[in-house]
Design brief:
CATH topology: Rossmann fold
Protein name: Serine aminopeptidase, S33
InterPro entries: AB_hydrolase_fold, Esterase_lipase, Hydrolase_4
Radius of gyration: 17 Å
GO molecular function, one term: carboxylic ester hydrolase activity
Order of helices and strands: EEHEHHEHEHHHEEH
Number of domains: 1
Keywords: Aminopeptidase, Hydrolase, Protease
Shape: globular
Structural class: alpha/beta
Number of strands: 7
């Protein structure tokens, strides 16, 4: 897979299904490498890079959540002309964008596979510690820090520049609150993957989808918001494959 924060497009002429991957806030298409590797050659793939991402913090703060939503919707609008089945795979904020898109384009979107769905957010000590290490300790290397760096596509000239992105995170919190209502309007198949030790997404998020017949919850063991253990990656990859098959039927 690519090592830069770039969009990835794979068109399989014989496929009537496209899998659309949507990353989170300040996230990266690279977060989905292990899933795309598993699916490659079976379905068409669109791995998006949202506006303002993959560049500097200055570019990021000039974008906003409405632009990110519009970008996803515009891409789906184009894809539905060529594909009978569209499956959305979101991570974190990408889950929120996916829910809105599913309501806007119900005809072709067959299912949502939502990883680290942030209907409720909490900031843990582990999250603060990891971000300090990422910002101030370039030499720090462990699996969790490496995964977090891979999942962050926004570069800064100094660590304090991250503070300029606060308005975008306020927009994110509003989107979280709105999505708690919107997801209850969806009847299509949905899988939610909740990490066992997510540093950002609270387990309270699952309270908003309790007793929903169309929603199945999977727990990713020994995993966090960005880091997924090898066992969890295998579990998620297999369940996504199964989900795509059943959603197309």
């Amino acid at each position: 897979m690519e090592t830069a924060h770039l969009e990835y497009h794979y068109r399989l002429k014989t496929s009537d299904t496209v899998i659309v991957f949507i990353h989170g806030i300040q996230g990266s298409p690279l977060q989905f490498d292990y899933l795309i590797k598993k699916l490659h050659g079976t379905y068409s793939i669109e791995n998006l890079l949202l506006p303002g991402h993959g560049k500097t913090m200055k570019a990021f703060i000039k974008s906003n959540i409405n632009q990110w939503q519009n970008y996803v919707d515009e891409r789906i609008n184009l894809l539905e002309k060529d594909y009978e089945n569209i499956i959305l795979v979101g991570h974190s904020m990408g889950c929120l964008l996916s829910v809105q898109s599913a309501l806007s384009y119900p005809q072709k979107i067959r299912g949502l596979y939502l990883i680290a769905m942030p209907l409720n957010i909490h900031v843990t000590y582990a999250y603060i510690k990891n971000n300090i290490l990422i910002a101030f300790s370039k030499g720090e290397k462990n699996d969790v820090i490496t995964a977090a760096r891979k999942g962050n596509s926004t570069s800064v000239s100094n660590p304090f520049e991250y503070l300029t992105g606060i308005p975008r995170y306020i927009e994110l919190l509003r989107k979280c609150k709105l999505t708690r209502v919107l997801i209850k309007r969806l009847q299509l198949p949905i899988v939610i993957v909740q990490s066992e030790t997510d540093e950002i997404v609270s387990n309270k998020s699952l309270q908003h989808v309790e007793n929903r017949q169309n929603i199945r919850v999977i727990t990713a063991k020994a995993s966090g918001h960005y880091y997924y253990s090898y066992e969890a990656q295998e579990q998620i990859s297999q369940s996504l494959e199964d989900f795509i098959v059943t959603s197309r039927q």
